[in-house]
């Protein structure tokens, strides 16, 4: 989903051993620290046994440009969600990773949670569990409720928005709202068996934030521990250079989640590093064709290693993630090689060979 190259190799494991000596900013003090309620090894192993091999996509319905368009009452699209998750079911996918946004909750708290429940009903009807994502440091820094921008032709994720983005540095009191949001959602769904994982923070430190994201990262884990949902909480590692953030994420997540858009050798190196921790693992982002990360060469590795396999993108649509991160096509014409996504908007596979590989691994041939 992001710009840059993700090298999760041995340096990540070594970085996890370093101490975090960075001074924290004032936003961290807005939440009282609670004792860690991280799962035991036994709890993590029991979760892995119950859920089996998770495989699926990061899911944004093709009619939505971003998280706000997904969840706002005016643009929530259950018909498209049902249709597209049906295509996922047909090829044996059983888990979707779905982003939330605090503004949609802030505008309409009960309606937002009702729409989450409606989404979960639809997904469950297709045998699909859900990974919900709270915060995100990627793409556009500012946002507002209401009508969302139209896509920029040929530009990857032109309308995707961060959460909370720059606003948390401009309005320190925002953390009070974010705390209420996270705790309300977790309290409502903390025992919901349709939810596989709570992904607390997508790519903390991206967009040049670096360690400025640490206070919110620590806060969201504290809030989650205070509620302590029945599902695992995690924040995926994604960039080996963010050593302080990586250390905190790896030490405090119930299960290990990570992103890797590299080819087989580098992806395997990341796996070999991370699995030394002995916890269940889920790759929550992979599959970027221009980076030699394909279903054909990565998904079999994840299947063999019993690592959850959640690729970026299900159906090409308004998010424009069939276009590469750094290679816009302003005319909006078809890219020579799709970057992400499995299906055209009419449900036709981008590549029948890819779908055949997926179906062979999921046992739906």
What does this structure look like?
With 365 residues, this protein is of the alpha/beta class. The chain has one domain: Alpha-Beta Barrel (TIM Barrel), CATH 3.20.20.80. It has 13 helices and eight strands. It has helices at 10-15, 41-51, 67-71, 78-90, 102-107, 109-125, 167-170, 174-189, 214-227, 243-252, 264-274, 295-304, 352-362, and strands at residues 55-58, 95-99, 129-136, 195-202, 233-234, 256-259, 281-285, 308-312. It has an eight-stranded parallel beta sheet. Strand 7, helix 12 and strand 8 form a beta-alpha-beta unit. Helix 8 packs parallel to helix 9, helix 9 packs parallel to helix 10 and helix 12 runs parallel beside helix 13. The longest helix has 17 residues, at 109-125. 48% of the residues are buried. It comes from Draconibacterium orientale. InterPro entries: GH (IPR017853). Keywords: Signal. This is 1,4-beta-xylanase.
């Amino acid at each position: 989903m992001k710009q840059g190259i993700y090298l999760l190799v041995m340096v990540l494991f070594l970085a996890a051993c370093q101490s975090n000596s960075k001074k924290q900013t004032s936003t961290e003090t807005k939440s009282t620290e609670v004792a860690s309620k991280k799962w035991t090894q036994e709890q993590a192993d029991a979760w892995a046994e119950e859920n089996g091999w998770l495989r699926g996509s990061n899911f944004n319905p093709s009619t939505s440009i971003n998280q706000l368009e997904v969840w706002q009452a005016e643009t929530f699209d259950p018909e498209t969600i049902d249709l597209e998750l049906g295509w996922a079911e047909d090829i044996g996918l059983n888990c979707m990773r779905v982003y939330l946004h605090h503004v949609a909750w802030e505008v309409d708290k009960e309606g937002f949670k009702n729409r989450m429940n409606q989404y979960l009903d639809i997904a469950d009807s297709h045998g699909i569990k859900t990974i919900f994502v709270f915060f995100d440091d990627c793409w556009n820094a500012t946002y507002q409720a209401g009508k969302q921008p139209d896509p920029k032709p040929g530009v990857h994720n032109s309308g995707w928005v961060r959460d909370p983005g720059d606003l948390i540095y401009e309005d320190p009191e925002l953390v009070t709202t974010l705390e209420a949001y996270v705790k309300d959602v977790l309290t409502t769904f903390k025992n919901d068996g349709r939810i596989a994982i709570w992904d607390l923070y997508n790519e903390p430190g991206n967009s040049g934030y670096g360690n400025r994201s640490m206070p919110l990262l620590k806060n969201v884990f504290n809030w989650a521990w205070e509620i302590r949902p029945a599902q695992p909480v995690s924040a995926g590692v994604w960039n080996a250079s963010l050593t302080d953030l990586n250390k905190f994420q790896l030490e405090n997540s119930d299960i290990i989640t990570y992103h890797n858009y590299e080819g087989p050798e580098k992806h395997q190196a990341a796996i070999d590093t991370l699995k030394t921790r002995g916890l269940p693992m889920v790759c929550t982002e992979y599959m970027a064709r221009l980076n030699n990360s394909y279903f054909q060469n990565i998904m079999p590795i994840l299947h063999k290693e019993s690592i959850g396999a959640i690729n970026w993108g299900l159906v090409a649509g308004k998010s424009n993630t069939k276009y590469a991160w750094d290679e816009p096509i302003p005319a909006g014409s078809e890219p020579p090689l799709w970057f992400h996504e499995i299906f055209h908007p009419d449900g036709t596979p981008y590549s029948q060979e890819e779908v055949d590989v997926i179906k062979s691994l999921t046992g739906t041939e």
